[in-house]
Amino acid sequence: MNALAYEHYTYAAVAVIGTLAAVWAVDHLLNRPAVASRTVPWRGVVAPFINVNAMLFGLTLAFIANDTWSARDRAMDAVFREADSLRSLLVLASALPEPARETMAGAVRDYGAAAAGEFAQLRERGVAPAAAAAADALLRRVAGGSAAAAGEVVQAEMLRQVMRLRDDRDLRVSLSRTHLNPLKWLGMAALGFLTILSIAAVHLGAPKAGVLATALFALAAAPSAAIVLVQGNPFQEPAAISAAPILAAIAGEP
Predict the structure, then answer these.
(1) What distance in Å separates the CA atoms of residue 28 and residue 31, rounded to the nearest whole number?
(2) What is the spatial distance between Cα 26 and Cα 129, in angstroms, rounded to a whole number?
(3) How many Cα neighbours within 13 Å face the side chain of 44?
(4) How confident is the model over 134-188, as pLDDT tens digits?
(5) Would you say 235 and 127 are in contact if contact means Cβ atoms under 8 Å apart?
(6) Which helix (H) or strand (E) element contains residue 155?
(7) pTM of the model
(8) Cα 100 off chain centre by
(9) Tens-digit pLDDT profile for residues 183-205
(10) Residues 172 and 135 sit within 8 Å (Cβ to Cβ)
């Protein structure tokens, strides 16, 4: 198993544990009598100051979440476009005379089966050589003389659909191999820690209220970041994209 394929889960665990550790460390430090006495001159930070860092933290998380879910939407669109192209190819293949008709339809179904089977490799950020070979075989068959029997217009359309299949497969593979951008998450972590410090600064004179406020922020921030992180690869759980549309297309189902 490729350990780097599941780096999203590792970062999610780091985000949760790191947030809780930061809250505990700040609260433990500020509640020590020696530290509390030294913070007296710094008391008086007004509550609206928290909004500055908290807003920047929330916006950063929202931008990262948008990138993650946008990638998932693009991968889902690619799968449905592949299914549509497979259906189109099967319909166009029906215009061919026998035995070219059945041979062409078989090549289309072979690619569909190989592409659906590749989803297991996409979870590991890999590719299936069988899918690439099936795509090449389908292209050679459509570009060859057998598809020309249906006419130049039909053959041209079949070629267009095959090229679209290949483009969508390449898009699926590239999205499954997308790695996390450490700079984005480092920036978000820094803003989160500054927000914890801001909450603590507002509650310097009320340690129990400060513990509650920072704990509530941690309970909101850590799970939100973890939810975004674990969806870094659109072909992994908990919201993995399925190959069902491709399988339905080659099976002739709506």
Answers:
(1) 5
(2) 52
(3) 3
(4) 999 999 888 876 666 777 888 889 999 999 999 999 999 999 988 778 888 888 8
(5) no
(6) helix 152-176
(7) 0.85
(8) 40
(9) 888 888 999 999 998 888 888 87
(10) no
